[in-house]
Amino acid sequence: MIQLSNITCKAGNKILLQNINARFEPGKLHLVIGPNGAGKSTLLKIAGGQISPHAGTVLYETKRLETMSYQALARVRAALSQHMELSFPLKVWEVVMMGRYPHIHGNHVRKDIRYCHEAMQLFDLEELSERDYMSLSGGEKQRVHFARIMAQIWEPVPGSCRYLLLDEPLTFLDVHYQFQFMQLLKTLLQQQDLVIIGVVHDLNIAAKFADNILLLHHGKLVCSGTREAVLTSAHIREVYRLEPVIYETSDRYFLFF
Ligand SMILES: Nc1ncnc2c1ncn2[C@@H]1O[C@H](COP(=O)(O)OP(=O)(O)OP(=O)(O)O)[C@@H](O)[C@H]1O
């Protein structure tokens, strides 16, 4: 579980996040939505320990995040950033192996190779394993980074959850891989020690896959909960200045604009 309590974050005089309280339990898919500039990436970076808040606390289970060493954190928490680019020649498997660095003392061992191989299988990357990363398409590169971050937290950690933070993971993916990726997250969540928080822009993706949706606007948490509670006409109008038509049946929930 990750718990954010009374989180406030500023840049100069600008308030990026104001008094955010949120709890991210394992086994559920938590998706953060909100318009451009709402504070979604900032929230994710604070939850992942990449930036520190000006006020408030971040707990990983019962541990305060700032008491964890960088290496201890990197062994349990993997983050996919919005702008991850590598501009030096590496093979695909070498990029995936970078995920294992927090676990490696000296050279990688057989176990690291196996985990990377399994992570690449998960994202259909076996055939690309020897390819130069820089020669890949945007969607292929994105899948390499999925494999890298999964390799980072492949092994369950005794006494701890594992945490996966995904900032706009669906960018670059075609609709097939978008759905495949979201389905895969749901499957991974059957391992009850995984906490997954993602940022997405597509409200229908959030409606279809999220167990818990957090709606941010101007650095404030407007509301959180189920799709029926969060993706209402009133919230969409207030935050996105659009009038949706909502189609709802017992198992489906769509927004049309
Ligand atoms: N270091 C900084 N200095 C000044 N302003 C910043 C800084 N970092 C972020 N901001 C501002 O804070 C606001 C929230 O940024 P953030 O990246 O968290 O938004 P977001 O919801 O992820 O947006 P998007 O959907 O466009 O990616 C934006 O207005 C951004 O310009």
From TrEMBL:
GO molecular function terms listed in the Swiss-Prot or TrEMBL record: ATP binding; ATP hydrolysis activity
SUPFAM superfamilies: P-loop containing nucleoside triphosphate hydrolases (SSF52540)
Keyword Translocase among record annotations: yes
Keywords linked to the UniProt accession: ATP-binding, Nucleotide-binding, Translocase, Transport
Keyword ATP-binding: yes
Highest taxon of the lineage: Bacteria
Domain called ABC transporter: residue spans: 2-243
NCBIfam families given in the database record: PRK13548.1 (NF010068)
Role: Part of the ABC transporter complex HmuTUV involved in hemin import. Responsible for energy coupling to the transport system.
Protein name: Iron complex transport system ATP-binding protein
